[in-house]
Amino acid sequence: MSRSERTTLSEFLGDTIVYRQLSPLDRRLPRYEDLAPQIGLSPDIRPRKCQPEYARIVACLLREAAKLHRRSDAIERVLLIGDTRGNDVTAFRQLCTETGWFGVAFIGREDVTRPESWEIAEQGDQRILLASRWRLLDELDRFCTARGFAIDERTAVIIDIDKTAIGARGRNDEAVDRARIDAVERTLKQLLGSAPSWDACRTLYDRLNRTALHHLTADNQDAIAVLCLAVEGGLISSEILADDAARRFSSLAQLLRAKRRSSGRLPASATEIYHRFCEGVRGGVMPEFEAFRENEFEATVRRMGLLPENASRERRLVEEITITAEVRDAAHRWREQGALLLGLSDKPDTATRPTQTAGLRPLHRTEVRVVGDV
Predict the structure, then answer these.
(1) Going by C-beta distance under 8 Å and a sequence separation of 6 or more, which residues neighbour residue 39?
(2) Are the C-beta atoms of 322 and 371 separated by less than 8 Å?
(3) CB burial class (10 A; 0-12, 13-18, 19+) of residue 367?
(4) Which of the residues 116, 140, 271, 315 could staple to 266 if both were Cys, CB 3.0 to 4.6 A apart?
C-alpha cells in the first residue's frame, strides 16, 4: 500500500552515502584521493563495484565511519541489501573475502509470478538470500538470529540505493527507467538539435539496456546513453546491436573500434563527446557522459513526488520514484540495534546533485513518498 508520509534518503542514511567517486558525502570521512594511496591504490583511478579494489576501499570507509560514530572499528559482520545477482553479489563476496567478515546478503526483487519465498545460497561464512518479495526483509532478523548473525554495533549494513532504497526492483524500477529515458531524450535534443519521440527513445533505450548486451555495456548507463547517441547520430547501425550480431564483439572497446565511422549527423560538440568517450573505453576506463548524467539527475528528482496525493498506487509505482518502505523500516530497526549504516550507489556525483537548475536539492535530500506492502 502507499503510505501518506514523505521523507528523504538522508532521514535514514544521513550523509553516510558513497557514490561512484568513492568519496563519502559526510565530509568528516576521508576522500578517496586521500585514502587510496594509504592502501596501495591510485588516487586517479576509481575502481568499480565488481573489482576487488572496490571492496578494499569500502572496508576502509566502513572502519572510518565506525570510529567516527564513537564505536570500535572492529566490525565482524556485514549485511548487504541489494537488488542484483551480478554486481551486488560480486561486491558482497569480495568484501567478505577482503575483510574476513561473516556476511549475509539480501537480494530483493518483487516477483509475483513466484511464491513468496527466498532461495538461500551458503558458502563458508557467506549467506545469500534471493527474495521474491521486498516484505521478506521483515523476516531477515529472524533468519540472521537463527544462524548466529547478530545485527548490532559490530555489524555494518550496506544498503544499495538504486532500485533498492528507491525504485524497488520489480515494483517501482519502471519509474527509474522512465527518468533515464527522459534524460536520454533531453540529451539527444541538446546534442543533435532534435530527438525521436519519447516512445521511440524508450524503444531504443530498452534495446540497448537489455541483459544480452551487458557483456558490452556492463549495465553502465553512460555506455547505454552514448550508444543511443551513436545510433541516432548515424555512427552505429542499430542492427549491429541485435543479439546475434552483438555476440561477435567481446567488449565495448571492440565494438567501438570496429564501428568507428565518420561523424555521421553529429554536430562538432557531440562528435567531440563521442570520440572522447571512445578513447576512454579503449584506454580501459568507462568515462562519464556528463551531459546525460546532469539530465538524469534532474529527471530523477522531478519524478520524486511527481503525482498528486490521490493518484492510484499502480500509477504511482510506474511513474513516480518512491522510497521502499521495507528498506527504510529495516534501516531504522538496525540502527536502533546499534548497526552502522552505509548507503552505496554506482551513480556518478553528477547524477546526484544540482549543477544547472536552481531550486533542486541533492538526491539524498529530495523528499520522496514512501511505498511498501503491509
Answers:
(1) 56, 57, 60
(2) yes
(3) middle
(4) 271
Query: Phi first, then psi: what are they for 106, rounded to 5°?
Result: -110, 115
Angle CA 196–199–201, to nearest 5: 50
- C-alpha cell belonging to residue 203: 524503444
Beta-bridge partners for 340: 156
Residues in CB range of 182: below 8 A, 6 or more apart = 198, 295, 299, 302, 303
C-alpha separations of 340 from 62, 80, 233, 344 in Å: 8, 12, 47, 13
Strands 77-82, 102-108: parallel, antiparallel or unpaired by DSSP? parallel
Taking the C-alpha atoms of residue 47 and residue 26, their distance in angstroms, rounded to an integer, is 20
| C-alpha cell of residue 77 | 559482520
Find all residues with CB under 8 Å of 100, minimum gap 6, and list them: none
Burial state string for 27-45 with b = 16 or more CB within 10 A and e = fewer than 16:
eebbebeebbeeeebeeee
Map out the domains of the chain as residue ranges.
2-170+322-371, 173-295
Residue-level pLDDT, tens digit, the chain, 374 residues: 445 589 999 999 999 999 999 999 999 999 999 999 999 999 988 998 889 999 999 999 999 999 998 776 789 999 999 999 888 999 999 999 999 999 999 999 999 999 999 999 888 889 999 999 999 999 999 999 999 999 999 999 999 999 999 999 999 999 999 999 999 999 999 999 988 999 999 999 999 998 889 889 988 999 999 999 999 988 888 788 887 778 889 999 888 877 655 556 778 889 899 999 999 998 888 899 999 999 999 999 999 988 999 999 999 999 999 999 999 999 999 999 999 999 999 999 999 999 877 789 999 999 999 999 85
